[in-house]
Design a protein that fits this description.
The structure holds two protein chains of two kinds. Chain A is α+β, with helices and mostly antiparallel strands. Chain A has 17 helices and 23 strands. In chain A, strands 11, 12, 13, 14, 15, 16, 17 and 18 form an eight-stranded mixed β-sheet that branches. Chain A has a five-stranded mixed β-sheet with strand order 19-21-20-22-23, sandwiched between helices. In chain A, strand 9 and strand 10 (156-168) form a beta hairpin. By secondary structure, chain B is α+β, with helices and mostly antiparallel strands. In chain B, 29% of the residues lie in helices and 17% in strands. Chain B has six helices and nine strands; from the N terminus they run H-E-E-E-H-H-E-H-E-H-E-E-E-H-E. Chain B has a seven-stranded mixed β-sheet. In chain B, strands 6-9 form a two-stranded antiparallel ribbon. The longest helix of chain B has 16 residues, at 3-18. Mean pLDDT of chain B is 87; it is low at 1-25. The chains are: A alpha+beta, B alpha+beta. Chains A and B meet through helix 1, strand 9, strand 10, helix 13 and helix 16 of A and helix 1, helix 2, strand 6 and strand 9 of B.
Amino acid sequence: MRFLTGVILTLALALNVPSLAFAQSSPAQSSPAQSSPPPAKHVRAELVSDRSGIAPGETIHLALRQEIQKGWHTYWRNSGDSGEPTQIKWTLPSDWQAGPIVWPTPQRIPVGPLMNYGYEGAVLLPVALSAPASAKPGDKITIGAKVSLLVCADVCVPEDDTLSLSLPVTASAGPADQKWGPAIADALTKAPKPQGLVAVFQSRASNVALAVTGSALKGADLKDAYFYPFESTVIDHAKPQAIERGPDGLTLTLAAGYGFQGGKSPPAMAGVLSIGSRAFEISASPGAPPPGASGLGPPVSAKGADGADLGLVAAATFAFLGGLILNLMPCVFPILAMKAASLAGHGGESAAAKRQGLAFAAGCVVTFLLLALGLIVLKGAGAAIGWGFQLQSPSVVGVLALLMLAVALNLSGLFEVGTSLQGTGASLAGRQGLAGAFFTGALAVVVAAPCTAPFMGPALGWALTQTSLAALTVFLALGVGFAAPFVLVAYVPGLLSRLPKPGPWMEVFRKALAFPMYGAAAWLAWVLAQQAGADDLAKLFAAAVIVALAGWLAGLGQRRVAMGEKHLVMTSAAGLLAILAFGAVVWPQDKGAELNVEPYSPARVAELRGQGRPVFVNYTAAWCVSCQVNDKVALSTHPVSSAFARHKVAYLKADWTKRDATIAAELANHGRAGVPLYLLYGTNGSEATILPSILTPDIVVKAVEAADKH
Amino acid sequence: MSVMSRRTMLAMTGVVGFAPGLAKASAMLGEPAPGFEALDADGRTRSLSEFAGKTVVLEWTSSDCPYCAKHYGSGNMQALQRKAVKSGVVWLTISSSAPDREGYFTPNTARAWRTKVGSHASAILLDGDGKIGRAYGARATPHMFIIDGSGRIVYMGGIDNRPYADPASLKGAKNYVANALADLKAGRPVAEPISPPYGCSVRYASAGSFQ
């Protein structure tokens, strides 16, 4: 056993023996006792300088140049999920100083499901070298560097190099070294520096939002934005970083790393924010993301032109089919049936019928194109005023979910939309001749609007992310599809008799179509839950209930209108409620005061009391309404959080949402069978004070002050 | 029945109830450890649930990695294993290297390696398809996890505070695993439950991400 250990030790030491190094002027001596040649190195390391000499008191830059074998890589100061950064130990004459490595922006090097940060190919790692004022011009000094680096491909090999460099001390600042001066200067310029960017980070349910704003980011192309942290425990390096743009900067959604486990949070997140061409050093402190860091959606990728072509054809086909199906909508069908019947009235005048058909098609297509133009203008304006149309923003998702719900309620018959519009349009469409046909087409599109969401939604959403030309093409296809059956009927009169007659089946069809819309609303609610968490989901549900109430009131109002009764109160109430519901979803909420929460355990309580700190234990559960109310009304307020901070109160949460025997036992100990229970352990070691079940900030603050007095 | 044994029984029921079907869950401090099942070097199927009620140490290793060699070459790891196993801890060494990558273990090569380095681990688990590694988010070798008697993860991270390959870095290093085991033995909560794992990357097969 000992013999084996000895053999292994010897082998390990032998592998780490420094082998022949590539130095600029003097190679290190190899041990004469070494009989076998050293293993081939994967990194050719040399020490270079940007000046050919250095003056007393001057600072120049040396650099460690690494020429890395193809397929291998060395590491950045945070190597990522594995690996080790290059280290340099300097041997300098007395009073000479070498600074830290100025790390160039690293590359991402994925290794299977893991992620490393480092360098491939060739890299220069500059280091500042300062000569003391006492240096004597004419001296030649030798700078030694013991470099230990890890280079990996499929395997990892630690490589050590002992390098040295001789530099003359000159009377005045010398010229730049021809070979390395420009290269080192370039490396220094490109290295990330602080540029006055303001960064904050906020821990969310399962990820961390990092918001960075500043003039350097305004108007920049952010599609390659990535955050390289200096510490290896703040983020999960392998997970992708979602980018949300804002007028002042961006917000990255990062997967939390070990540093956020156990209810903790790192005091700061420092690192490098790279946006492709440029990189900045940032240091984020905890805080809520400012509004200017989001709202413009994810970056639109300039590439994807080939993909877009195929996508355009597919989307146009889909839109054409959607347009065809739109004809069956209960909103549209009666009008078309009426118009088709009037076509039949032309009898054998097929030429006139054909012209009518084409005029109708023109009306449809023009209206759709106008709609498209309107949306393109909105999108352009939206980009300037900070609206996001994509599904990245929880507010947009919430609004869409409420919209889907409203459409579904409309389809279910709770209230009607556009009856007045239909009334106006009908008179226009009643006109005979080509103008009548044209306006019928336009009317049909307008009236189809409430029913089109399930089919137009995807085409619309996709079209808005593409170029204006693509959007117009999609809408054109929609219009053509929509008009096609009518045109067909105009050209083939025999079809007229085969058309299904309007009847009660349309109502049933319409009510059945409500259910996909309910499904869409439910799906969007799920998306919101993923993005924003349980609290925002609760807000959405509350807003949905208000929307349903508003819809019912609107329906009541409309029925009263039909019966000639007073409806103003009801209709305005409905309108106000609808505005309230949508506003609640869009309004950014003040998160209140964030308290530093730890999970509860009896051992932790004992430990904290041993440290002489007051301990506040909140026995709560997600399904306990009074607990949630107390949390929002009392515990998340600023007076309470500052009282906790002042008296160094530790806040422990005993979450009884799922069964927990320990917590149940503790509740029983205090004579309770359920939650909430608020215990405050004072500093004098006595029994815990039980706070009332209904808390106000005042009660908590007074109790904390009393507990800390003893 | 006393409260204590009732609690232990409840806890054990919890572990047995939790253990199967959690292979896809992510390892979080304080949460129940994902259950797993794998073949060991002696050809027996081992599972986390068979060690319910005991403290379990999971050690990810790779026979080719210089960081593991630092600990094995110096005898540091074996001594830690022996001390732990003697005090009733279960020590599982796991290799998640894929079949075509360095450090892959078959039962034969695992046994040969065990003899060569003198491992005192309770078992060496062969996780060639990377299932256990991915369930725990094991990213480096050595990467250590400690699971307490109630089945919860109480330590996750590196083995010590010297993330270097140089064997000289062992001198004066603070061994987080040894300290955590001492804390558990004394009935204290683990003082430093998290540390950055370091070493060579675990040699998974493909680019699929963790859950």
